[in-house]
Amino acid sequence: MSRIIERGRLRPFTGTITGADPFEEIEDGAILREDGIIVAAGPAVPLITANPDATVVPTEALLSPGLVDVHCHYPQTRITGTYGGGLLEWLETVTFPEEMKFEDPAYAAEIAREFFDRCEAVGTTDVTVFCTSHPASVDALFNEALKRTLKVTAGLVMMDRNAPSPLLTPAQEAYDDSLALIERWHGAADGRLTYAITPRFVPTSTPALLEAAAALWDEHPTCAMQTHLSESVEEVAWVRRLFSDAPDYLAVYEQFGLVGPGAIFAHAIHLSDREIASLADHKAVVAHCPTANRFLKSGTCPVRRLLDAGVTVKLGTDIGAGTTFDIMEVARVAEGVPRRPD
Ligand code: GUN
Ligand code: ZN
């Protein structure tokens, strides 16, 4: 086994996204690799003393932890930052036409390569991704992931209304397609790949589709579950019209059993106190995507209220409504997170 210590400037992540610099600075730091895998990191002297057999190699490189992006859409790589008005208009005029191109597996494979190149270029090592409603788009992403070292969580977008017909799949078919993909990919590459059950959002879902997504999650509880929640005021009003019996947006997902531990809700901007308390009670995760919220003028995620209520908040680039692949840049513009007074 090779044991190598790289010695240089280390920036371990020790904080949270609450306004202060969350990275510690260790001028004389080190990481220990065993056969290429990082097994320890910290101040250089104790690490070297504790591992006298390891070869010490000085480096000029900045040693930093891998970065995590909990929400993005790889099929939107080429439309990153393309203007199209607010959320609903942007989906219709910019996003859905691009996603329709993924009917072609060769195009999907090309964009999957481009997507991972861009993630790697900015230090992202763990990414949670929406594909399109074409099963081949999921195969393209995971097949490319096999050639890389990133941890990848991804799934087939499930939609059965309110999108162009080539992107719609009846609920039963979306269930069957997702199931086949779970069997092929969930836990593959020694657990580096995870399948995410992916109903796009309430406006593109009939009750039957949400039921199908919930059944999949119930039957495969180790899968992730990802969707969107309360991103724009027009979207929230639309959900109120579609599900007039539900007291609020999150209640629709609750009604179908889609709110639970680890479920990732992207954006989560226009929320009532009840919805925030429910996200906390269910141990759900909010993907805060400030660059996308700014680009689509969707509003400001109430991050402080979410954190105070005990909701776990993580950062997402939301490519392609987000304007950068760089999660450090996303962290810099993470809005709505006032520092607590010292
Ligand atoms: N809501 C439903 N689909 C999408 C999407 O592709 N991007 C964003 N930002 N919001 C969505
Ligand atoms: Zn999104």
Round the mean pLDDT to the nearest integer and report it. Answer: 94
User: Percent of residues in beta strands?
Assistant: 15-25%
Number of domains: 2
Shape by Cα distribution: globular
CATH C-level class of the largest domain is Alpha Beta
The CATH superfamily of the largest domain bears the name: Metal-dependent hydrolases
Question: Mind summarizing the main beta sheet?
Answer: 9 strands, parallel
| Bound heterogens, unique | guanine, zinc ion
Q: H/E order of the elements? A: EEEHEEHHEHEEHHEHEHHEHEHHEH
Low-confidence stretches: none
CATH topology of the largest domain: TIM Barrel
Rg computed from alpha carbons, rounded to a whole number of angstroms: 21 Å
Going by CATH, the architecture of the largest domain would be Alpha-Beta Barrel
Amino-to-carboxy terminus distance: 48 Å
Number of helices: 13
| Helix fraction bin | 25-40%
Give the helix/strand class.
Answer: alpha/beta
Count the beta strands: 13
Task: Explain what you see.
The model has no long low-confidence stretch (mean pLDDT 94). The chain has 342 residues and is of the alpha/beta class. The strands form two sheets. Strands 5, 6, 7, 8, 9, 10, 11, 12 and 13 form a nine-stranded parallel beta sheet that branches. Strand 6, helix 4 and strand 7 form a beta-alpha-beta unit. It is 37% helix and 22% strand. It contains 13 helices and 13 strands. The structure holds guanine and zinc ion (ZN).
